[in-house]
Specification:
Blueprint: E1 2-4, H1 10-25, H2 31-41, H3 44-52, E2 56-63, E3 66-74, E4 87-95, H4 104-118, E5 123-129, H5 133-141, E6 145-154, E7 157-167
Parallel strand pairs: 4-5
Antiparallel strand pairs: 1-2, 2-3, 3-4, 5-7, 6-7
Helix pairs in contact: 1-3
């Protein structure tokens, strides 16, 4: 089941977001840089702030009462290389390893499209760590193409993210 998150989900989302971010990126990054980033990006106050922001839609994917993944879309920022007059950013898209390959990501991406459309978007864009081959392959499968790169600050480490975009509704 995919549903829109509410303020009551802030603590649960913060815990899940930290856990999945650490599992996804922790093995390749300095623990101090990881901790600094996660404290800023995934604390409960930050999640609560994002959950009440009218320009951010947070979607939760739940399976049998378990949080299996989440996504956030936002009309706040424009991509470094705009491809549309109304781009919507896919800020975050994570599916727990236990749920990968079980259709959760596909359902979540369909809900992302609907949320981006509701925000008035005509294109969807995202940033993904260039070293994350699994995620990059998934986004390509969903119709995204690379349009550039952008720096990403993880604690004290400046990394390079790929910027990808697609016309809204062009997922496969």
């Amino acid at each position: 089941m995919i549903r829109r998150a509410g303020i009551e989900d802030a603590a649960r989302l913060a815990d899940f977001a930290r856990e999945i971010f650490d599992a996804t990126f922790g093995p390749w990054n300095d623990p101090l840089d990881m901790q600094a980033y996660m404290d800023e990006a995934f604390g409960e106050p930050q999640q609560a702030h994002e959950l009440v922001d009218p320009e951010i839609v947070t979607l939760l994917a739940e399976v049998d009462g378990h949080l299996a993944g989440y996504a956030q879309v936002s009309s706040r920022r424009v991509p470094p290389a705009p491809t549309s007059d109304r781009p919507v950013e896919l800020m975050r898209f994570y599916v727990g390893r236990r749920w990968q390959g079980r259709g959760v990501a596909k359902s979540l991406m369909e809900a992302v499209d609907a949320a981006a459309d509701a925000l008035g978007g005509t294109a969807l864009w995202l940033c993904v760590w260039g070293e994350n081959a699994r995620a990059t392959a998934f986004y390509r499968k969903c119709g995204f193409t690379e349009i550039g790169t952008t720096p990403f600050q993880l604690g004290s480490d400046t990394q390079t993210d790929l910027v990808m975009a697609r016309t809204l509704g062009a997922s496969t």
